[in-house]
């Protein structure tokens, strides 16, 4: 009988003594080249992320700037429009016993028909021409130049108002109220501070909008009435005797933003006069590299021709 001895290999799970120092090390680190490659890839990733973040912020700032300019323009036109819609208005005389006996019968009959109107006495554009209640001058309703406009109307106490002690519902651009006296709002551009300001019945002026590059006013004057073919014509200035013939007011506003933007060569806009081209890349100071937006609105004066 032949016997075989199978020798099983010996597995050592632990080396002790001097043999422990002779065991080969199995841990490995990265080489310098591998470290440099990893750092380069990491830096490139960070650079791409930062670039995307800056582009996103620039787009967001531009959109926010445009939205801010539109909101400012909407507010300015709401304030100016509120005053222009009241320009020249006075209380409609509804009481027949207060009529001036020297007035012609036709107007007296007209006022008599108005007695059916509610006692709240709505604002209208006729009044008794008496010593205590004279017909307002046309310049009280509207006056101004190409760079400013003064708007006025006559306020009155309203018995149905919630505060009878005050009793006046209408006020100027600053919220001031003078009762039956002439209430005025003077809109003008302060070029030094680039602000559109409003002066009420008393100084000082208060800003209505900031970052205003231009504020221009044109007046629609009715001409040719004597010929039977009346026409409307734009004027930058109006003679003192012709304010009663102004039928409308055009207000142009140029606003600029606060965020610097990249402007391609030749970027421009057309100014309020409709002719002048403004090169935005040549602007300096606070307007340099800024978004510019031009706004324009026309208001019809319902009171003119009736005062």
Automatic annotation (TrEMBL):
InterPro entries: N_methyl_site (IPR012902), PilW (IPR032092). The keyword tRNA processing does not apply. It comes from the Bacteria. GO terms for biological process: type IV pilus assembly. It holds the Pfam family PilW. Coiled coil: none annotated. The chain crosses the membrane at residues 35-55. Keywords: Membrane, Transmembrane, Transmembrane helix. The keyword Transmembrane helix applies. This is Prepilin-type cleavage/methylation domain-containing protein. It comes from Pulveribacter suum.
């Amino acid at each position: 009988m032949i016997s075989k001895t199978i020798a099983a290999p010996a597995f050592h799970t632990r080396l002790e003594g001097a043999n422990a120092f002779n065991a080969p090390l199995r841990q490995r680190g990265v080489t310098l080249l591998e470290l440099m490659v990893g750092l380069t890839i990491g830096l490139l990733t960070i650079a791409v992320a930062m670039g995307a973040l800056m582009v996103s912020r620039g787009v967001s700032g531009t959109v926010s700037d445009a939205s801010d300019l539109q909101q400012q323009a909407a507010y300015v036109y709401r304030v100016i429009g509120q005053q222009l819609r009241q320009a020249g208005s006075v209380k409609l005389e509804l009481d027949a016993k207060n009529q001036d006996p020297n007035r012609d019968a036709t107007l007296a009959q007209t006022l008599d028909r108005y007695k059916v109107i509610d006692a709240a006495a709505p604002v209208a554009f006729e009044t008794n021409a008496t010593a205590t209640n004279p017909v307002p001058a046309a310049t009280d309703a509207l006056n101004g130049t190409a760079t400013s406009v003064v708007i006025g109307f006559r306020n009155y106490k309203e018995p149905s108002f919630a505060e009878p002690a005050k009793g006046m519902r209408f006020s100027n651009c600053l919220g001031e109220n003078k009762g039956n006296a002439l209430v005025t709002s003077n809109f003008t551009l302060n070029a030094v501070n680039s602000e559109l300001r409003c002066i009420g019945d008393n100084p000082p002026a208060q800003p209505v909008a900031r970052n205003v590059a231009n504020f221009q006013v044109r007046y629609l004057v009715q001409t040719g009435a004597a010929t039977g073919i009346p026409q409307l014509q734009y004027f930058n200035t109006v003679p003192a005797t012709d304010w009663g013939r102004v039928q409308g007011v055009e207000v142009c506003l140029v606003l600029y933003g606060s965020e610097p933007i990249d402007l391609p060569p030749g970027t421009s806009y057309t100014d309020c006069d409709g002719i002048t081209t403004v090169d935005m890349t040549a602007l300096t100071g606070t307007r340099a590299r800024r978004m510019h937006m031009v706004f324009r609105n026309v208001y019809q004066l319902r009171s003119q021709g009736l005062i």
